[in-house]
Amino acid sequence: MTDSDYIRIEHVTKRFGAFRAVDDAEFAIQQGEFFSLLGPSGCGKTTLLRMIAGFEFPTDGEIYIDGQPVTGVPANKRPTNMVFQSYAIFPHLNVYDNIAYGLRKLKLSKAELDKRVGEALEMIKLSGFEGRKSDQMSGGQRQRIALARALINRPKVLLLDEPLGALDKKLREQMQFELRQLQKTVGITFIFVTHDQEEALSLSDRIAVMQKGKVLQIASPRELYESPNCREVADFIGTMNFMRGSVKAIDGKTAVVDVEGLGLVNAPLPEDYSFAPIGAEVLIGARPEKLDVVRGAPHPGEKGVKGDIGACAYLGDRNHYQVTIAGRAEPLQVATEQGDRSTLASFSPGEHVTVSWGDNSLVLLPKD
Amino acid sequence: MARTLKKVGERGWGITIFAFGYLAFLYAPMLVLPLFSFADQTIFRFPIEKFSTRWYEEIANRPEMLGALWNSLIVGVIASLAATLLGLLAAKAITRYAMPGKNVALGLISMPLFIPEVLLGLALLIILNVAHIPLSLMTIAAGHVMLCTPFAMAVLIARMDGFDKSLEEASLDLGESGWMTFWRVTFPLIAPAVVSSLLLTFIVSFDEFLLAFFLQGNEMTLPLYIWGQLRFPSNFPPVLALGTCILLASCILVVFAEWLRQVGAPKDRPSVGVGG
Questions:
Q1: Mean pLDDT throughout A290-310?
Q2: Which of A70, A148, A181, B204 has its CA 20 to 30 A from that of A137?
Q3: Given an 8 Å threshold on Cβ–Cβ distance, is A210 in contact with B271?
Q4: Do residues A326 and A284 make contact, with C-beta atoms less than 8 angstroms apart?
């Protein structure tokens, strides 16, 4: 922990009876960062967000915002604002009054109020909608009103609880883009809760992956995808083939691992490889798109294993194959990119092929 | 809708006859009131030979009756305001706070609905006697508050359960205190239910007889007055005229309350409910 940490979560635990909704969370968020809490439903991400907002209070631990401890401070006294999952647009107020809601205490003049609300509406491209009621607005518009209403108070941190969950796919993608633009413009720290891994990957500077109340890994989207630190993270973000193996040797920056079905492979060592001393049981992970299916010998400089094509699926931009290899019960998942139309999917079920991989495609993971 | 509803005619006329018979059973006796209130006679007997509005004109000449009406209005207003306020507090506590014994509290508040009113009246009379509290309109009102609060609570709980709690959280999040959140968000959203509760509890109090009978002092409420007049047939027709007026007012109130209930029905439910 350093002084530059804008938000600090120190050993925060939240228990509901015997259930640990959040279990000893410990991390820091920098000013201006777009930070996501990612995990399946019930993993504790919303509870953690609500503790930062001041709607729930930790059973143990401390929360700091901009150097100030806020652990026992109620929501209305915190420098945070929230965009709710349901948007929580006040149904009895029009758009103007919704957006101006948090400004009452500032006792601004009517002209000043008009100016601030006008700017907020411009920011969300809804100028001219002041007089509309919330039930006359579409889902995307309501979402933007909720954003403007939260940002008009100029909070130190904006908290977003699955704000895109209720939108359809096209609109969601557009709002993701707008959200990212908006965050860059206003420069406010965003903490974003989502269960959608693609959304988290495309929006965030850093992501905390949570499961069963625990923070498993905090890293940039690229690092999370390329170097997950455990099976749960690797499994939750994208797809991965997991193979059991045991460490035979450590050689500089690689581990030599004897893997079921594949034989000896060289896997790059992660930063912390204390879990993998010589002789240890480990997992080797490989993303389907990092593997390739070829006829005959593997690609130059790569290793390969012989197998038989099981199921095939054509997915438009890529093909999915299940390849059965000797010494392994589960088939390997392989995804190959589509070339131009002359080289369309050329493997069929039952065909003898070689699965080819480069050492850098492999991830060394602790055995679970 | 998965299946279309059959029209009445397709089900045969039996159900229609039953429905109208049932309505007649419920409401025909009530029609006796306006009918005889326009009859120019003091004895209830058919055929009615002559119609007139003289009993309506007579209302003004019965100060005792108007006094009783006025007392009932006062008791009704006090009881409905107090019961709605208590019901609101109870509804807020029950829908918004996690507390031990919530269901027990809910049951205890509703209990007066299930205790025979005779026993309730008797118990209250004994308590007031022991405490040397003189009987008056206020003791009747106090008894009515007890009876009306469960109604108010039920109406208000239904409404408060029906709206998205993140609306209140959003207000707190935007910097308002709990009290201001109540006035700026909660109250406007439950206002239709508050009005329904006021109307419902007023009507419960207005026609309540047993508790009023036990707890009355020197002043009577309208139901007590009407009961007292049964002994004097010649005094009765103006009571019918007044009763008809009240019946009409009740009908208007009921229609108004129902309209409010529909206008105020929750439309602001969240469209999603998943979260981590």
A1: 89
A2: A181
A3: no
A4: no
Cis peptide before B47 (omega within 30 of 0): yes
Q: Are A286 and A361 in contact (CB under 8 A)?
A: yes
Between strands A80-83 and A157-161, the pairing is parallel
Considering only CA atoms, give the Rg of chain B: 24
Q: Return the H-helix or E-strand segment holding A257.
A: strand A254-259
Q: Which of B167, B176, B267 sits opposite A135 (nearest CB)?
A: B267
Q: What is the percent of chain A with per-residue pLDDT over 90, rounded to a whole number?
A: 55
Q: Does the pLDDT of residue A239 top 80, yes or no?
A: yes
Spatial distance between the Cα atoms of B33 and B242, rounded to a whole number of angstroms: 10
A77's CB contacts (< 8 A; 6+ apart) are A54, B175
Q: How far apart (Å, rounded) are the C-alpha atoms in residues A86 and A330? A: 42
The token pair that represents B248 in the structure block: 């009409």
A6 phi, psi to nearest 5 deg? -85, -40
A-B C-beta contacts closer than 8 Å: 99
- CA distance, residue A173 to nearest chain B CA (Å): 18
**Residues 6 or more apart whose Cβ sits within 8 Å of residue A107:** none
User: For residue B271, which phi and psi values (nearest 5 degrees)?
Assistant: -85, -15
Q: Is B173 a domain residue?
A: yes
Q: Which of A40, A55, A91 sits opposite B169 (nearest CB)?
A: A55
- ipTM computed for the complex: 0.82
pLDDT digits (tens, 9 = 90+) for B124-182: 899 988 988 888 888 889 999 999 999 999 999 988 888 788 999 999 999 999 899 99
* Domains: count for chain B: 1
Q: Do B166 and A105 touch (CB under 8 A)?
A: no
Give the residue from chain B lying closest to A77, CA to CA: B175
Residues of B in contact with A82 (CB under 8 A): 169-170, 173
Residue contact A162–B272, C-beta within 8 A: yes
Same domain for A255 and A141, yes or no, is no
How far CA A68 is from CA of A2, A19, A204, in Å, comes to 14, 29, 25
Do A212 and A191 lie in one domain? The reply is yes
Query: CATH number of the domain that A87 lies in?
Result: 3.40.50.300
What is d(CA B108, CA A43) in angstroms, rounded to the nearest whole number? 38
Higher pLDDT, B43 or A33: A33
Which residue has tokens 């749960």?
A232
pLDDT tens digits for range A33-70: 999 999 998 899 999 999 999 999 999 999 999 989 99
How are beta strands A241-251 and A254-259 bridged, if at all? antiparallel
Domain that holds residue B232: 32-41+48-263
Cβ contact B177–A86 (<8 Å): no
Mean pLDDT of B8-22: 80
What is the token pair recorded at B142?
A: 């106090």
Question: Which residues of B fall within a CB distance of 8 Å from A74?
Answer: 172
Mean pLDDT over the full length of chain B: 83
